[in-house]
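Q: I have 212 residues here and want to know how they pack in 3D. Can you give me a structure?
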Amino acid sequence: MKPGPPPKTASRAGSLPLVGSEVAFDFTNTASGRGHTSHQDHLQSAETVIAWAVHAKVIGAVDAEVLRAAVSSDERLAARMLNEALELRDIIHDIGMEFSSGRRARDQQVDALAKVHADCIARARLTNHGGGFIWTWDARSAPVEVILGPITLSALTLLTRSDLSRIKMCQGEHCGWLFFDVTKNKSRRWCEMEVCGNRAKQKRHQSRQRQD
């Protein structure tokens, strides 16, 4: 039986643990328990997208104030920000799911990510930074791209420069959080040992007690 829509829960977008080791995965981890009754989604509005972006240091406080003012006075912009954020999150999550399962990402998934990246770069400029250059966006002229642009860059950097076997999904029951395993021997299993790891230990302990 297909689970019904998840109950509305208070958003923790501005305080979620940032344990993905990459901005792109911290972004996908704004939802958990996908496909289960325990599903929680913390991106519920444009305001929560902005709150997460500040928390993850994708944007600073000044840009956040500009964006909050913009979405509060423009419902269409607010809807676009939320919808495009959710679409990008699904794309990155689907790609991460494939690699965490030992499969290659499908071409249509990678093409979708590349398209979002191209759309964001079209609104960006190269800015001198620390003796080099970085892509930057103006919050007033590119209010959606200033958030989504750095996330797509993070995702593409993973795909082009990283050991893709290090992309993993938390083994916690109905968790679904993604992370990039930076341990030397690729031994990481949990998003957070204190949360999913401990729950698994407690479940094993209870199972042994029932068998005794």
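Q: Anything worth noting?
A: The CA atoms of residues 166 and 181 lie 5 Å apart. The chain has a mean pLDDT of 91.
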